Amino acid sequence: MKTNDSPRASDGVADRVGAGPGRWGWLAAGVWLFYLAQPLQSIAERQQGVVQFLGFLNLALFAASYLGFFGLMRRMARQHLLSSWQKGAYLALMLALCLLMIPTAGQTALTGLVYIGSVAMMLLDLRVGFAFVAALLLGAEVSMRVVPGWTDDGSYGFAIFLGALAVFGMRRAIQRSIELSATRKDMAELAVQEERNRFARDLHDILGHSLTVITVKAELAGKLIAANPERAASEVADVESLARAALADVRAAVAGYRELSLAGELVSARAALQAAEIKADLPTTVDEVPEENRELFAWVVREGVTNVVRHSGAKRCSIKIAADQIEVLDDGKGPTPGGGASGHGLVGLRERANQADAGVQVGQAPGGGFRLAVKVGL
């Protein structure tokens, strides 16, 4: 297995450390501080007076350093300020606080190594993280065997291993999510570029021959104006005829792009969604849609599916069609707060809908995601 991250993936993982559901994601990480109850109890039972106070203070600082990682480090990662020595210094600080707990908490202070291992797996490159966790595991096992009064029950080493393994799985999941998002974006951009190339090829095929002949005939007419005016006039007439024919071909090509087929757009939508690894729930027939509504509904399918593939981050897209209404729904991130429903595609769709006496609705889909609907006869 390849364990080293690409720079892009590592940056994304660092940026998402502690992100959770919004800016309060560090609270989810803070739940795991429950396991510090063991050294807390040990300090409370074994120490008194100033020593006990110092033990509690040291434990609180360790907990703060763990939570601080999910705030301070994430903010610094976004600004690309994290260097190798800063990462090492932060882990060294946590390790020092853990070791300082030993005089007051005894063997239970080894619980802190679980948190340090988890932070290391999120912060360091995977190979370095594995080595660091292995060193922590070895240190815990050796210390339980050589320190007088400590017992080797295997629980601390096992906890360090499980904590690191869980964070490794989370990190790989984040990396896969980043790669999938990048792939979807690349595929959407590739689809747009391919459409541009196809249109350019069509225009070249339509105009290439006609313009070449027009150029040749225009040059010949220029040379014949003085020597043979009648022949020059004939060549100019041919140039005019060729120009009109080329213009008709361009208009026919543009009309072919503008007049869409609802059935054809549904087929294209299914292919685009499958290419983007989005589950498609599309109708298989359009018989119930009146002929006068099909072109408008085809534009809705094209605009809606394009937005799903390019912007939504969805895993599922469904299209519902009735005689007078069409809906495109996804389970993605939904409408952008404060608007975001005024892109050029939607502006053009509204113009077409107004011409067909129809209304456009955009907003959040039931259960989350984005909903685009057009209803005729509003």
- Tally the structural domains: 3
Structural class: alpha+beta
Gyration radius, in Å: 33 Å
Q: What average pLDDT do the residues reach?
A: 79
The beta-strand count equals 5
Order of helices and strands: HHHHHHHHHHEHEEHEE
Instruction: Report, as a whole number of angstroms, the end-to-end distance.
Output: 58 Å
Low-confidence stretches: 1-10, 17-22
Fraction of residues in helix: 55-70%
* Strand ordering within the main sheet: 1-2-3-5-4
Summed up, the helix count is 12
| Percentage beta strand | 5-15%
Q: Which features characterize this protein?
A:
two-component regulatory system, five-stranded mixed β-sheet, alpha+beta, single chain, 5 strands, kinase, disordered N terminus, 3 domains, Heat Shock Protein 90, 378 residues, Sig_transdc_His_kin_sub3_dim/P, Single alpha-helices involved in coiled-coils or other helix-helix interfaces
